[in-house]
Amino acid sequence: TALAFSSDGTTLATSGDETLKLWNGNPPIGEPRRQRLELRVSWPRNWIRFADHDQVLLHSGEYRPLEAWE
Asked: What's the CA dihedral at 10, 59, 16, 36 to 10 degrees?
């Protein structure tokens, strides 16, 4: 399980089980955080991070290679 915020705080990425999810990172006060995207992956990710001015999502699982999604 992992989470990462984009540098401007507008997007939150979470991982758990075999999903990566993107959420609105900074909803208006009183508004719920809304899921924008859910991606199925073949193994759990325990490390995620935004890179390259938030244009790339890096992620990896235990004993797995680093992957980058643009």
From this structure: 30
Residue type, 40: R
Sheet strands side by side (includes 11-16): 2-5, 11-16, 19-24, 35-40
The tens digit of pLDDT for each residue in 34-48 reads 999 999 998 889 999
Say if residues 63 and 38 touch (Cβ distance below 8 Å). no
Concatenated DSSP letters for 36-47? EEEEE-SS---E
The pTM (predicted TM-score) of the whole model is: 0.86
Q: Which amino acid is at 38?
A: E
What SS3 state is found at 10? coil
Is residue 18 a contact partner of residue 41, using CB atoms and an 8 Å limit? yes
